[in-house]
Amino acid sequence: DTAVSQTPKYLVTQMGNDKSIKCEQNLGHDTMYWYKQDSKKFLKIMFSYNNKELIINETVPNRFSPKSPDKAHLNLHINSLELGDSAVYFCASSPHDRGSYNSPLHFGNGTRLTVT
Amino acid sequence: DAKTTQPPSMDCAEGRAANLPCNHSTISGNEYVYWYRQIHSQGPQYIIHGLKNNETNEMASLIITEDRKSSTLILPHATLRDTAVYYCIVRASRAGGTSYGKLTFGQGTILTVHP
User: How much is the mean pLDDT over chain A?
Assistant: First the structure.
């Protein structure tokens, strides 16, 4: 009964490859996010989607393309992987409260991406 | 969103209360104080949030000073499983659509609970 699940948990790949990370939430939330945690442990938002519509794109290179087939899924596709893309990627979701932004985010357990 | 300052690390004995401070001296009137924690190899977990009044839930209590420039997260009876990085975040309650869901994480406080 995992609320926010990501696959795979670990991903090791070579530079130049294209890879995808999948995320699914069963909480009925309208909004989903991708966050990146770098080697210094800082967590930063990359994207957010509300009902399949992109809301936030935090100056992420266009090699990163989120895809939301429905509001329960937000996948992250990365083209031409670079060494600097190595990080832990977290998916999250929250309900969308109109006019208010108090809803906590629920995070998955992350995908550790290693680019060699 | 306002910046927060937290001590880099704290220790606590198992069974005792853990009091984690946070300074947010530039907080504005519509900004809430949120606490999340991240246990090793897991995603961040929401703990509690508040605006002005003190808050309590099954996990913790949040004490916000009257001037709202600082707050304290209290874990009343810390256990070994509470060892984690604790993040204090201030977040606007109403913001432009481009800020929705944007949590600005700092370095947090590494809380170590020892037997």
Answer: 90
